[in-house]
Amino acid sequence: MNLPIYLDNNATTPMDPRVLDAMLPYFNQKFGNAASRNHAFGWVAEEAVDYAREQIAKLIGASEKEIIFTSGATEADNLAIKGVFEMYKDKGNHIITTTTEHKAVLDTCKHIEKLGARVTYLPVQSDGLINLQELEAAMTSETILVSVMYGNNEIGVIQPIKEIAAIAHKFGALFMTDATQAAGKIPVNVIADGIDLLAFSAHKMYGPKGVGALYVRRKGPRVKVTAQMDGGGHERGMRSGTLNVPGIVGFGKACELCALEMESEAKRLSALRDKLQTSLLQLEESYVNGNVEHRLPHVANISFKYVEGEGLMMAMKDLAVSSGSACTSASLEPSYVLKSLGLSDDLAHSSIRFGLGRFTTEEEVDYAIEVTKKSVTHLRELSPLWEMFKEGIDLDSIEWAEH
Amino acid sequence: MAYSDKVIDHYTNPRNVGTLDKSNVKVGTGLVGAPECGDVMRLQIQVDDNNIITDAKFKTFGCGSAIASSSLATEWLKGKTIDDAMKIDNMDIVEELALPPVKIHCSVLAEDAIKAAINDFRVKNGLAPIESEKVHH
């Protein structure tokens, strides 16, 4: 077992060696521009891109013509939201999203608010799921787009996508989802789910960084987005720019492997995740954040009360995890996702996200359990809050000087 | 962000972790910060009849830099008179631990904890608390 152990697979994943092998020829031997229509170098590149497009489309049940390549999911989110707003603003200016979306969605929504859009940010329930009645109540005749993420990046909660899509369509709005964390991990099907636009990225599924895609539905309805990158008219005019051929080839291979191995991998990972979670919940005053039934198989977000997350990560120096604490940020604000669940700031500061992946072994999980338990216990010995808790002092009764 | 060797040293082997009897008139206790902000420090001093700090203990809920700042503060406090201890400046802690700008608040908190502990001792012993005029940024 090599240290440190990587348990931050929601941030990024290591590239699968099979993906790397598929990509390598496209850097120097088959280096053509896929848009060069008049020689063999271009044809070879175009053929590789076409093949990857099929592999990628297949993973989400789409047709290859519906895949628009981008630099990643952030760009895909931007293109979807800005592109739909620009294309359909005569029809209405209202967009609905949720408070637990990724910043790529939230900040894009903030941007178009300045351009005249009205955005509703739906709150989530304490388990991280949205309330479908609240969504329906927020819909208006002006609503052109509903954007709700498939699986959450911090807590792994999976939203009821099919039901959300049905509500959007009932009111004549389009439905978009950021499926960056879900695609390749759980079955995602744009037809069965009723998705009109879907953003995803290669590097979250053992592919390379710097490449992603936006699925744009071609029929029932035919969806259009206004290009946000102008130039040579690539990607059916929706996203100009020379295609990242090696990246796209890698993305294709990554999708193919995920489709093949998803079922067995999800079983393996959820068993490991559950082992980790069950063991860590044996620690007093530890809590899982988010719904545990509707959850991605490889994620567990756990708060260890009376211990600060960043301090804890420092103690677990051989584990690469992430925390909802934000001691390094200027605002000192803890995770907005955890706060949206109604978690108090101190519990949000005490949270750790464990993200397992394809290369995580049982031995590593066992080690992670041991190190985490030891670190939490050690830091609680150092924690004045833990001492007060043990003495039966109600921490809410103390007048804290917020700084 | 990488931590300095001194932060890692104090974090890994924190000095003077513990609790003094806060009901003892010769013990001053400072509890600063807030759980919502992700930092709470409790710093305690034991003072002798010559107003010299003979022992200091801390417990901290916070990041590595907060733990290191309070650990360092207890080291510096021991052997100082309460008047000299009052002069410990947060920037001395920043310098000693090589704290980056985002962690300066940890040193501020440690300074606040020192002053709060000394004032607690002063009030317990019939002395007026000393108001700090320093404005932190």
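qc> Chain B touches chain A through 33 residues (CB under 8 Å).
qc> done
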